Predict the structure.
Amino acid sequence: MTLSFQQILSRISFSVLAALIGICFALPLIWFLFAPFNARAELGLEIPSPFTLKNFFTVFENTFAMRGLLNSFIQSIGGVVLVGFAATLAAYALSRSDIPGKKSITYLLLLFSSVVSGSAAMVPIFLIVSKLGLIDTHVAVILVFAGGLLPTAMFILRDFIDGIPKSYEESAMVAGASSMQAFRDVALPVIRPGIVVVVVWAFVNIWGSFLIPFILLRSDELMPASVAIYSFYSEAGTPIVTLLAAYALIYSFPVISLYLFVNWKFGFRFFGGIKA
Amino acid sequence: MASISFQNVTKSFGDFNAVSNASFEINDGEFICLLGPSGCGKTTSLRMIAGLETPTSGRIYIGDKDVTGLHPRDRKISMVFQDYALYPHMNISQNISYPLKVRGENEATRGERAQEVADVLKIGHLLDRLPAQISGGQQQRTSLARALVNPSQVYLFDEPLSNLDAKLRLEARGFLHHLQHSMGMTSVYVTHDQAEAMALATRVAVMDQGRIVQFATPMEIYRKPATTFVANFVGNPPMNLLPVEAMVEDNSLKVKADGLEVVALPMHKSFAEAVAINPNITLGVRPEHLRATAEEENVVRGKLFANENMGAEKLVTIERPDAARFTARIFTDDDIILSEDVALGFSSQHISLFDADGNRLALDNE
Ligand SMILES: Nc1ncnc2c1ncn2[C@@H]1O[C@H](COP(=O)(O)OP(=O)(O)O)[C@@H](O)[C@H]1O
Ligand SMILES: [Mg+2]
C-alpha cells in the first residue's frame, strides 16, 4: 500500500492533534495518581521520589476528615437505599398499572425536580427543613437528596421496566403466584440491572455533592467528606497540596471501586433501553 | 379438566370492542382453536379465560364456577405465551417447576417433576442451562413443560408455534396433537394459521373483528363455511368466490355471471326468499372441486394465469374477463393439456352459495 504525500501528512497531523488533546485530559489524572505519594508534591507534575505513604498517615490522623468520610457514607447509603427502594416501587407501579395520566405524572415530577433540586431552591429547602426541626441532622440531607433524585430515578427505571415484557409476571400469576410473589420472584430479578444503574448514579450524586450538606448541617461531626476536604486548606486559604491530593484519592476510591464492582458483577447494561 | 363457558362476553378498550358479545361452550376435554386474522380479538379472549383481562360485560365460567373476576392464580389454569415468557434468571429446571414452587412443593419433589416432564419433552439434558443458552425450539418446549408440570383444569396456548421455523413447527404441532389425544386436556389454542387449527382442533371458533363468525368442527368449517369471510380464510388456497346473479327458473335456481356460466340447482325454499330480496349472491367453489373439462355447464372460463407445480398436485389459476381469479388444485397424474383458454368444471353438489351479506345459503342436501 502506498500513501500519497498528502495522506501521510494528514495522518501525521491527525495523530499529533489527538495526542495533544489526550495529554490535556491525562495530565490532571496522572497528577492525581502521583501527587499523593510524593512528600513534596506541588501543582506541577512530578514522579514521586522517594515514593512515600507519609501523606496518607497524616490524613488518617485528621479526625475531622476521617469522620467526614464516614458521614459521606451514612448520607450516601441512606439516600441510595431510600431512592432505590422508592423509585423501584413507584416506577413499577407507573409502568404496570393503568392509572390514567400516569405518563404526565412522571414528566411533571421530572420537571419540578429539575427546578427544585437546583441551587435556586436552597432557601425554601432550608426553610422547610428548619420548620421540620431537622437542621443539622443526617436525615435532613438524606431526605433532600432523595426528593431531588427520585423523579429522575423513577423516570429511568420506569423506562427500563416498560421495556420488560409483562408476560413474565403474567405467566407467574397464571402459574399460581400472587401479584406480590410475581413481583418478587420474577419482576424484581429482571429489573435489578436497572436498579443497580440508578443506585450507582444516586450514590455518585450524593457522594460528590457539596452545597446541600454545607447548608443543612452545622456541626463538624456531621459534615461529609466534600466539606471536610476544606480542612486541608491553610488559614490563609491556600491548599496543602500533599494532604489534599492524598485525601482526594481516598475520597474518590469508593466511587471508583463501586463502578468496578458493578461492572464486574452486572455490567452496565441498559438492556431495557432508554428511549428518552 | 373442566368445561368453559362464555356468556355474552364483551371486552372494550376505550370505545373499541376487541371482543363483541361472544358466547360459546367448550366441553370438557375438547381442543378448541380460536382462529382469525391478526387483531381480531383471539388473544384478548384467551386472556379473559386466564384472568389477565377482565370482561367489560358478560360472564365466564370454568366448570360450574363463575371466574369472571377471579385472580389468575385461583383459576387452576396453565398457559403457554407467544413469547414463551421464560424467566431469564432461572435455569430450565427452576423455570419448569416454578408453578410447583408457588404452590409450596418442596425442592426435591420440584426437581423430580421437572425432570419427568422435561424428559417427556426431550429437554431433560438442559435442566441446568439458562433460557438464553438454549434454542428457540427448546425454549418453546420449556414453556410447554412449565404449563404441563402442574395438573390444571384448562390449558391455554397463545400462538405457541408462531416463533418456530417451518420444520420445527410441524414437529411441535404433531407432538401437541399426540399430547392432547393421550391426555384429553381441555385446551384453548389461539392461532392465525388455519392449517394449524384444522390439524389440532376438535372444534374451531373462527373470529372476525371481535365476533365469532362460526364455531364448528374443522370439517364443517371447511365444507360449509358460514360466511364468505370463513370461506376465504380457511383452506390453502382458499375457496374461490365469484359474485353472481341468481334467478328462479322452472322451479330451479340459475346462477349467472358475465361470460355465460350457468349452474342449475335443485330449488330450496330459503333460496327463493333470499334471491327475491337481493339476487346478487356469491358462488364459492373449493380448488380441489375444480377440474379441467370440455363440458358446457357448470364451467368457469378464463385465460391461464399461473400453473404452479406442487409435487403431488398443481395449482392452476385462471383469470376471468372481469379479472376474478379461480384456482384449481389438480392432481399431476391427471395428465391434462392446458391451452391458453381453460375451462374449469365443477359439480353442483360441491358449491357454496352466500347471500348479499356474505352469509351461507343452505343447500338442499344439507
Ligand atoms: N391493552 C389494550 N389496549 C388497547 N387495545 C388493545 C389492548 N389489547 C388489545 N387491544 C386491541 O384489541 C384488538 C384485538 O387484539 P388481540 O386480541 O391481541 O388480537 P389477536 O390476538 O387476534 O391478534 C387489537 O386491535 C388490539 O389493538
Ligand atoms: Mg394475538
Remarks:
- The interface with chain B takes residues 165, 167-168, 170-179, 181, 185-186, 189-190 of chain A (CB under 8 Å).
- The two ends of chain A are 45 Å apart (CA to CA).
